[in-house]
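The protein record quoted for completeness.
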Amino acid sequence: MNHRSALRNNKEIPIWLYQDDYLVTQAKTENLTDQGMCIKTNGLLFPKNATIDIAFAPENNKPLKRRRAKVVHRSLGSIGIMFSNCDAQPN
């Protein structure tokens, strides 16, 4: 599956990044697709293939909703992640 050809929504949304249930950093999205997103990490690098949790900023004091993802691309200042269930095959 070619993830780079997905339709992208170029929008900055504040998010929180967690690893092993610990808050690592706050960041902003650069663009989003239904399969993943590019995230500005302000120079913080995550290892390729690392599993992280993404939490979108809450609205109206609602609890954070986390989504599991995998780091698939990385460069200085940003990472590309793919949501964990994107490659799931139906039974």
Notes: The chain has one domain: 11-85. The beta strands are 14-19, 22-32, 36-40, 51-56, 66-75, 78-83.
